[in-house]
Every structure is written in C-alpha cells, then in structure tokens.
C-alpha cells in the first residue's frame, strides 16, 4: 500500500463521508482499504474528530450515519431539524426517576438526539451521556417531572413523544 500524507487521508475520508452512507467506523475502514489506505480504528476516530464528523440522520433514509459539518448539498446529513427529517424520529421512550431522565432511541440515534438536548441549553439539564441507543440526562435538583416533560415536548414533536412514555 502506498503511503499517503495525513492531509490526503483526511481528504479521502471526507470524500467517502460525502458520497456514502457510512453507518459505523468498521464500514469506513473497509472503504478506506478499498482506496489502499490502512489505518487503525483509533487513528480513524481521531481523524473523524478532527474533521468534525458527527452521526446524524440522512433525510429520507432514517439511517444514522457520519456527516461533516456545513455540507450544503441538498442530500446532506443533518443533526438539526430541517423540515425534511428530524433526528428525533429515532426517539422511542423516556422515563424520569428522581433527577435522572433516561431516553431510549432507535439504534444509532442517541448521539444526535443528545446533541439536540444539550444544545437547547435548558436550565433543567446538567448534561447528558449518550450511548448507541440510550441517553441519560442528569436533571437539575429543582427540575420537576412536569417541567422536564414540557422541555421534551419543545424538542421532540408531540406525535412522537406521545407514543414514547
């Protein structure tokens, strides 16, 4: 395999993210091997971070896949609601226990939904931790269940939230 510079590898990764629905790092590593680039998963993770890649939902596909920031193409992946597809379509259910909110999502949607929750800057939330299909939100001590439910209604469309509890 030929030796590419870091800049060349980053360029190839960005190109692959723009042209393929890359759902996980294993898939991206395979695509890179097809381009004669062999890197470790740890290096790939670092490169994705440097590129600002995040997981989001591609409009029309309901798949969680990697995206690059500020992609103006019409078929770009988004992590914010666009009117076409909201990443909150991956929402499944929630439960409140004390000062903790647990949200279950479709596989792969937790990170994009947690990003939306965190970016709302609500004083009800101290922060969240997202896995593959679960989000745990630490709630402020003074947060009531009613206030938390109202906050969720602002973020997640009511028709989806109604089936979630």
UniProtKB/TrEMBL annotation:
InterPro entries: Arg_repress, Arg_repress_C, Arg_repress_C_sf, Arg_repress_DNA-bd, WH-like_DNA-bd_sf, WH_DNA-bd_sf. Keywords: Amino-acid biosynthesis, Arginine biosynthesis, Cytoplasm, DNA-binding, Repressor, Transcription, Transcription regulation. Pathway: Amino-acid biosynthesis; L-arginine biosynthesis [regulation]. The keyword Transcription regulation applies. Coiled coil: none annotated. GO terms for molecular function: arginine binding; DNA binding; DNA-binding transcription factor activity. Residues 91-153 form the Arginine repressor C-terminal domain. It is found in: Cytoplasm. Residues 5-69 form the Arginine repressor DNA-binding domain. GO terms for cellular component: cytoplasm. Gene3D superfamilies: 3.30.1360.40, Winged helix-like DNA-binding domain superfamily/Winged helix DNA-binding domain (1.10.10.10). One of its GO terms (biological process) is L-arginine biosynthetic process. It comes from the Bacteria. The keyword Protein biosynthesis does not apply. Regulates arginine biosynthesis genes. Belongs to the ArgR family. This is Arginine repressor. It comes from Porphyromonas asaccharolytica (strain ATCC 25260 / DSM 20707 / BCRC 10618 / CCUG 7834 / JCM 6326 / LMG 13178 / VPI 4198 / B440) (Bacteroides asaccharolyticus). The lineage of its organism: Bacteria, Pseudomonadati, Bacteroidota, Bacteroidia, Bacteroidales.
């Amino acid at each position: 395999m030929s030796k590419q510079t870091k800049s060349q590898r980053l360029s190839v990764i960005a190109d692959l993210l723009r042209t393929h629905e890359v759902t996980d790092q294993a898939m991206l590593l395979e695509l890179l091997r097809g381009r004669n680039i062999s890197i470790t998963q740890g290096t790939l993770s670092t490169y994705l971070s440097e590129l600002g890649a995040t997981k989001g939902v591609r409009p029309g596909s309901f798949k969680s896949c990697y995206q690059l920031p500020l992609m103006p193409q019409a078929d770009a992946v988004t992590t914010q609601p666009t009117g076409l597809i909201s990443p909150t379509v991956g929402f499944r259910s929630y439960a409140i226990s004390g000062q903790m909110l647990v949200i279950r999502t479709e596989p792969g949607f937790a990170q994009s939904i947690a990003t939306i929750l965190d970016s709302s800057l609500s004083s009800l939330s101290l922060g969240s931790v997202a896995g593959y299909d679960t989000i745990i939100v630490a709630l402020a001590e003074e947060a009531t269940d009613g206030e938390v439910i109202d906050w969720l209604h602002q973020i997640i469309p009511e028709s989806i939230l109604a089936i979630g509890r």
